[in-house]
Specification:
Layout (H helix, E strand, L loop, with lengths): L3 E5 L2 E4 H20 L7 H26 L1 H6 L14 H18 L4 H26 L6 E8 L4 E3 L2 H21 L6 H17 L8 E3 L2 E2 H22 L2
Antiparallel strand pairs: 1-2, 3-4, 5-6
């Protein structure tokens, strides 16, 4: 739609990068504001957020490049052009989670409690990031008469980015409410994973940017299925513990 929001001489402000930055700033502001209520150090929360952000961007980019390897072998400089878009959530999540757990262990912070604390903000940041996808024109949907016209694709497409963003805003609201109630540690975090996996599985049927790999499903739907049932199992396991 609008991959470049503003250009002043050689300076360009890319919509995708701007929305990622806004998502991070909004989420870190809310996290630092609420940290003390959960007996967490705001400064540690800031350090953790930055560490997770960098890890997530690296992981998301690596998986995106792997899935589009022929293009990047021919255009290697594009690998570092993050402002053009191209992050895979599953890769970003894996690297961010691994990096976050390492940080928490090194700083002797409670892992499950901190993951529950961050879960609503992850959903919120994800929702804001999808708006960046919409403005950039990536993660697009199938052609539809009732869709939104995308100049880059020269046709009306289903705005899957906005659909996913709206659903993630709802998940953010639900997780925020659940976090305030008594719960087993870890359940809020795994509920986010289960919720997003379900959303992604459904939205993938409307998207047109991923090939169907197995039984008419995309690779992301297959990952979503595994992550969904893994998250449900984790929630049930946590609830069964004393």
């Amino acid at each position: 739609m609008y991959p470049i929001l503003l250009q002043i001489g050689p300076l360009r402000i890319y919509s995708y990068g701007l929305m990622i930055a806004i998502a991070f700033l909004v989420c870190i502001f809310l996290a630092r504001r609420d940290a003390r209520r959960y007996d967490l150090d705001p400064d540690k929360i800031y350090d953790l957020s930055f560490f997770v952000l960098v890890s997530g961007i690296i992981g998301g980019r690596i998986l995106y490049v792997i899935l589009n390897l022929p293009y990047y072998l021919e255009n290697p400089l594009e690998i570092i052009m993050l402002h053009h878009g191209g992050l895979v959530w599953f890769g970003a999540f894996g690297f961010a989670l691994a990096g976050g757990v390492v940080f928490l262990k090194k700083n002797n912070l409670p892992i499950l409690k901190t993951l529950d604390f961050f879960a609503p903000y992850v959903a919120l940041g994800h929702a804001i990031g999808r708006i960046g996808c919409f403005l950039n024109g990536c993660c697009y949907g199938r052609p539809a008469k009732w869709g939104i016209y995308f100049p880059a694709h020269q046709e009306k497409l289903i705005p899957t980015q906005l659909i996913e963003s709206f659903l993630l805003f709802m998940v953010f609201s639900v997780l925020l409410a659940l976090r305030e109630k008594k719960h087993k540690r870890g359940t809020v975090f795994f509920l986010y994973l289960a919720s997003y996996s379900f959303i992604r599985f459904a939205v993938e049927f409307l998207r047109a940017d991923s090939p169907r790999e197995l039984f008419g499903l995309t690779i992301f739907q297959i990952i979503a299925i595994l992550l969904f049932f893994g998250s449900i199992y984790a929630i049930l396991y946590l609830k069964s513990r004393r």
